[in-house]
Amino acid sequence: MNAMIRLTAAQAMVRWLGAQRVESEGEVQPYFAGCWAIFGHGNVAGLGEALASAGDLIPTWRAHNEQAMAHAAIAFAKQSRRRRAMVCTTSVGPGATNMVTAAALAHVNRLPVLLVPGDIFAGRRPDPVLQQVENFSDATVSANDCFRPVSRYFDRITRAEQLLASLPRAMSVLTDPAQCGPATIAFCQDVQAEAADWPEAFFAPRTWRLRRQSPDSREIADLVDLLTRAKRPMIVAGGGVRYAGAETRLREFASRFVIPVAETQAGKGALVWDDPMSVGAVGVTGTSAANALVRQADLVIGVGTRLQDFTTGSAALIPVEGQRLVQINVAGFDAHKHGALAVVGDADATLDILSSALGPWRTPSAWTAKARRLTDEWTVAADAAMKAPAEQHLPTDAQVLGAVWRQTNEDTVVVAAAGGLPGELHRLWRTRSVGGYHVEYGYSCMGYEIAGALGVKMAAPERDVHVVLGDGSYLMMNSEIATSVMLGLKLTITVLDNRGFGCINRLQQSVGGRPFNNLLSDTEQVVAPDIDFAAHAASLGAKAEKVAGIAELEAALHRAAGEESTVVIVIDTDPDRTSEIGGAWWDVAVPEVSERPEVRAARATYDAALSARARGEKP
Q1: Less packed terminus of the chain by CB within 10 Å, N or C?
Q2: What is the domain range of residue 508?
Q3: CA dihedral 597, 602, 607, 609 (to 10 degrees)
Q4: CB count, 10 Å around CB of 596?
Q5: Residues whose CB falls within 8 Å of the CB of residue 29, separated by 6 or more in sequence, listed in order
Q6: What integer best gives the mean pLDDT of the chain?
Q7: Average pLDDT for residues 38-52, to the nearest whole number?
Q8: One domain for residues 420 and 362
């Protein structure tokens, strides 16, 4: 007979999670690095007791905001190339729903995280229990049903033995390259505390192998045929290159066959910035070189990209008339987008097979010479954009980024998310090493930056982690500064204060709108806020200062390098100016009817762009 052990359901979950291993590149290690927990009445008695008893089996960390701790867990998984993940548990109610935004972020970005929110009483003895959201027509619904559309796997545990099936299913999703994303197991709080007899075999260590799916030979044959007939091929590298660990393979493939490589936000850093085959960022926030080349390419090969609208220029940049599009992707859902020839497979495995199949073929030299010339021209323009201003006026985001780049080292990881900074980083930041660029732009989530950087530092403690964010994102979520100090995880944070949502203010005016409700000066107010971000950061435990101008910023960054704890540096920036180089069309709908002549003019321009796009011309 199978040996049995008596545990609560919460104890069983924690013990099982601690027994899961993952094998990657020949190395076996625990899959779950730990658990972020903010306790409440819905999880403290059950999961709280189980985690307290687990010790090093599942280390537990306390955060200050449920959404933020999930961001940290997601960033850890991203920086770990999806090889490892974390668990996040909250109470029922607001703690749980605070994580829904983070779940959506993980879903969009195809990143693994196990979310375990507490839930209502399965036995319904107290009904409604504290923080329960009652559905008037369906008693089986709780607030946790909000997780359903933003989870790759969802379950609600109403009986202890359901964990025997639910936990392995969740794990299979987290470790599946094609299905990867957030798994949510809503855990009824009375069930957490219930005891049951469990087979000891259930808790035996299990090693999961991250599969490398090889493509169908017929798909490879079709791609070889297209490539050998192409005169102007181009590669667009996405996040799948990084998650497959295919950076070296991509570099060798591009070099051997002399194919220019452009990068999405998630793929940036697949090649270092000065690699001979790198032409930089592509799309709405792309370089002039990459965008010119992708428009002229007769064959575009996406490698591990989901081709969102910023990459494709709202489908006006990729694909264009007369151009063939191929998508190498481990997920068939992404591989078939935009009418592409789908090659479903792991990026590293596919490039390896493709390299063998191509033989002596090379790209025509005229195309690669053009790519080098355009890239050199872009480098000159980018240098000018990032150069410190000579005159005494507020610096631009690009000038601040230039200062940060000059003061960082080869192993620095830059972290950012929403607003104007991701665009400037995508086109201008020069990634010196693999894993040195970490920007969340799939969901473009304000508030990810500091929390995400905490997860990056946990995944790569040996690297310097530098956060750049605006005052709007800082105000939205800054509490994990205190967590970084508490855990001894140093971050260097540069806050660009343009006194509002400068990026959206510029977008608002570009479509004819008047400045309204974005910059603080254009909002309904009784007292104009004068926020001392440095004093606030210092109150959270950081070493903080405000600087005036680029020279002072660089001096402060130099000093920060010698500190052992989190540093926050604040600088005022210009809300109106951007680098205004590179880029491609982005489809932002303009009102058809307005009293403002500026809006009517913007609508006419928009209609003309739509007509040009319909004719296959550049909008």
Answers
A1: N
A2: 389-572
A3: 160
A4: 12
A5: 21, 22, 84
A6: 96
A7: 96
A8: no
- Choose among 380, 421, 388, 379: nearest CA to 557: 388
**Both 415 and 352 in a single domain?**
no
What is residue 29's predicted lDDT score, i.e. its pLDDT? 96
In a domain, 45, yes or no: yes
Percent residues over pLDDT 70 in the chain: 100
Query: In this structure, are 416 and 488 located in the same domain?
Result: yes
Residue 190 lies in a domain: yes
What are the distances in angstroms from CA 355 to CA 221, 239, 430?
12, 20, 28
CA dist 500 and 507 (Å) reads 13
For residues 331-349, give the mean pLDDT: 97
Say if residue 428 is in the same domain as residue 524.
yes
Q: Which residues contact 170 (CB under 8 A, 6 or more apart)?
A: 114, 153, 155, 183, 185
Per-residue pLDDT reduced to its tens digit, 414-427: 999 999 999 999 99
373 plus 467 within the same structural domain: no
Number of domains present in the structure of the chain: 4
Residue 134 · residue 162 · CB < 8 Å? no
- CA 459 to chain centroid: 15
| pLDDT tens digits, one per residue of 526-578 | 887 889 999 999 999 999 999 999 999 999 999 999 999 999 999 999 999 99
* CA 438, 443, 449, 450 torsion-angle sign: negative
What is the model's pLDDT at position 279? 98
Local structure of 545: helix, strand or coil: strand
133's CB contacts (< 8 A; 6+ apart) are 93, 141, 142, 143
Domain boundary among 167, 187, 209: 209
Average pLDDT over residues 109-129: 95
The amino acid at 342: A
Please, which residues bridge with residue 493 across strands?
467, 568
248-299 residue pLDDT tens: 999 999 999 999 999 999 999 999 999 999 999 999 999 999 999 999 999 9
Same domain, 154 and 247: no
> Is 20 in contact with 208 (CB distance < 8 Å)?
yes
- 507 with 600, same domain: the answer is no
Sheet holding 27-30, edge to edge: 27-30, 20-24, 206-209
Give the separation between CA 505 and CA 254, rounded to whole angstroms. Answer: 40
CATH number at residue 510: 3.40.50.970
Laid out side by side, the sheet with 261-263 consists of 278-281, 261-263, 233-237, 299-303, 324-329, 341-344
Give a yes or no: residue 315 inside a domain: yes
% of the chain surpassing 90 pLDDT? 94
Q: Is there a single domain that holds both residue 487 and residue 533?
A: yes
- d(CA 99, CA 343) in angstroms, rounded, equals 35
Q: What is the mean pLDDT of residues 121-137?
A: 92
Tell me if 583 is assigned to some domain: no
- Is the distance from CB of 118 to CB of 96 less than 8 angstroms? yes
Stated as kind and residue range, the H or E segment containing 252 is helix 247-257
Examine residue 168 and say whether the peptide bond preceding it is cis (omega within 30 degrees of 0): no
User: 198 Cβ partners below 8 Å, 6+ apart?
Assistant: 4, 5, 6, 7, 12, 164
